[in-house]
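2024-03-11 09:14:02 DEBUG pipeline.ingest accepted 1 chain
2024-03-11 09:14:02 DEBUG pipeline.ingest length=439
2024-03-11 09:14:03 DEBUG pipeline.predict start
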Amino acid sequence: MQRQLGKFESAQVLTGERAPFNLVIVLRLASGPSFEVLQKALRCLHQRHPLLRAGIERVGGRFYFRVADEPRVLLRLGPRRADDDWKRVAEDELNTRFSLSPGPLFRVTYVTAPQTGGDCELVLTAHHAIIDGVSAARLLHELLGLCESLSNGSSIEEIEPLTLLPAAEHMFPVGCRGLRGIAKQAVFMGRQILQGLRFWQKSRGIDEPAIKPEGHCRIVTFQLPARLTKQLNRKCRKQRITLNSMLCAVQLLVAREHGFDGRAVPLRHFVFADLRPYLEPTIPAENLGAYFAMLHLVTELDVDIGPWSLARSLNNQIHIASSRGDKFSSVLMSKLLMKSVLAKPRFRMGHAALAFLGPVTLSANYGEIRPNGLHAFVSNFVLGPVYTANLRLFKGQLYWDMIYLDCDMDSATASRIAADILEALTALAESEISANSEN
């Protein structure tokens, strides 16, 4: 079984040739399955999902998924001597590339103490070309359900494999394919060029982030308590601003404070869009794949701009870009744009990137197995944004997982940035919103 990779999938593979481009998910458990049960459950998952058995081969200038008939489960044990040992494992996984051929492009580390039944972590790593945040959440639910059944001694019925679905662009709405799609791409590219010219004009005299030849991913993470998360979400709804826009605003303001001493600057940044609801037919969450888009924005930050005003501006930017269909054009142009970026090793892609998945719902328990924490990280390669974060809502809390390169900052600086973001979110959640929403 094989199929050619799409534009965005190919761009992700090209990115991975410069530095590892992995999605790492950490599921923290108050009680976990046995190693044998986990191994059997993973084998069932591999039989069901063709992309878990896939490798990537290059033929000329094209890439192809080649799916093995038999599953090959990559599962290892990681020792757990302290509660934060999973962080070291996650960093190692972010910095360890996959062998694309023959694959597979998915591996699991079980971080657990010798005795069973205690706190443990599942660290799932995948090449980002085979999985997105939506399908990753569904995969976790499926894995834990299988572990529950196997732990109870239930027999697993014969697994019926899912179909290997086409790349996203083959399921775009009619208006974004064919000649109309090409016209939209041309207009999109023209806007991107003009946006770039305006940015370079307005950023003259402002130091860009330095690029160093090597860098390793490091992580820092925090949670906004459920009470504050609920208050912040409620205030955003009252102001008709998405929580995603507010989170982006806070990230940009803190990035400006640390990187540019609070000066008025234009910042290049990325937001992400889930394509699944817009494809024809709609892709269910149970199907793995990279069905998302990356939107490149430039936002000007005045010296006295407040978080609510900035969030409203971002909200409008994202709404306009979405209504124009930029999420589809960005996918179609992604391979060409990535080739252009990689051809200019001194070009830094941007200052910040924020991916907000929204609520992730898992069952309170799967038999004796009890999830109590969920983290996610995506490798930040050396030409990528300096300030990168993956966010989600889990058990009512906002999980903010920050990724940085050790060539950009040390751990103390990264921790200060995380503390400043948490302080800003806490203040927004607890403060009153002024009449003109400028505070």
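2024-03-11 09:14:41 DEBUG pipeline.report The first strand starts at residue 2 and ends at 4.
2024-03-11 09:14:41 DEBUG pipeline.predict end
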